[in-house]
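Kindly draft a polypeptide, keeping tokens residue-aligned:

***
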Amino acid sequence: MADKAKFIEELNSRYSPKGEHIILGKAMLDGEVLPEVNVTIPLKTINRHGLIAGATGTGKTKTLQVFAEQLSHAGVPSLVLDIKGDFSGIAEAGTRNAIIDERYNKTQLAYEPQAFPVELMTISGEKGVKLRATVTEFGPILLSKILGLNDTQQSIMSIVFKYCDDKGLPLIDLDDLKKVLQYVTDNKDGKAELAASYGSIAPASLGAILRSIVALEQQGATAFFGEPSFDVHDLLQTRDGKGVVNILRVANIQNQPQLFSTFMLSLFAEIYMTFPEEGDSGKPKLVLFIDEAHLIFNEASKTLLSQIETMVKLIRSKGVGIYFITQIPGDVPENVLSQLGLKIQHALRGFTAKDKKEITKAVENYPTTEYYNAANLIQNLGIGEAFVTALDEKGIPTPLVQTYLISPESRMDVLNDAEVSELTSKSAMVAKYEQSINKESAFEILSQRMNQAVETAAPTQKTKPIKEEPGMFESVMKSSAGRTFTNTLMREGAKAILGMLGLGGRRR
């Protein structure tokens, strides 16, 4: 038996921050809940990122819900990427039951059922705040990453953007970009302008770019690119002192990997480029929760992992914390895992040799402890229990503690359709972004220019019509490669999401 008095004294000395903090639960020792020991996290270290891991059914989503609730209480807004679609219940008050009563009797904490301020968001046309961005705001480098272009094609994309800048051709949506490609490829004047100022470009390369754009459109990107573009500062709202929980429902991510990547690249880049440096502000400005993080990291290239690691390091200075939720810590690469200050580890199951290796690896990443046989206990943690280690106010890792987690105060279930409709109908943000704006841009300008050129060149005398050869643009759009490209991409869709966390910024 461990020395209980010594344990209580040591844990209280390390989990009692002087500044603002949130509470996750109570410490446990030898299976007993110790209400004398709060497991707390200082708000000033929340931007040091973290991991919530555990096998299916061990309570990760409820822990995420508690975390978001506690941040909201502290006036800190969050953005939750709700992959499974089971998080929206945070907008409604929870209900007391025997299980919750038992849990709160053990913790000796008060249970106060309540709803939290919520904004539902979408990138795929569902009910909620429509998230959009313009092609110009992405810029050639970021857009090239989304489209999976090689170095040569990326340089061509940069030339196309430069051409549009010089010629006053606004790139708002994908129709604008396609029209520009058509103009500089199939139109005599357009080809001459491009060649005169920027050099000749191989039609095959332009065709490859066009096919990538068509594939992205098939995943719903047509609705994503446009105006009004989303202002990331709208993520920072509070209501009645509570931070707003912004929920992006992306349950169809498997069918829209590139569209999801598009949003994430836009969001992270915009936050990094527009948020000011925070320094030691005392609490985070925004916290991002990325559920099912293995969808990001599976089969990631070295280049992508480097970009993710860089983003995790840099965005911290903007007062933003990033939290990955996944089944095993091994889903997160070592270089990223080492940057995560808070680790909440639910039970792991050692059914196979590979599982046992993951358990060993997870335990090795924890601070050593004399109070727990971590390798054994990690396989026997109950639902709603987790190992926790964090950073104290000085940035020093806290002791590993078995934690009896508190329950969410909001509903532990999803909103029904009627509740979603009611929530979104009352939202000022939904109204702000609901209607798309179609300003005059490259598509309209070049269409008018091309029509005028056709009218000017029309013959004054009747002549035998000459059958024109289809241009490259038309050929790509009608080719079997153009039609089947999307099907091929969908089969390889899981790989496409790995391009999601690049750096860049919007150009205003």
Observations:
- DSSP finds 20 helices and 14 strands in the chain.
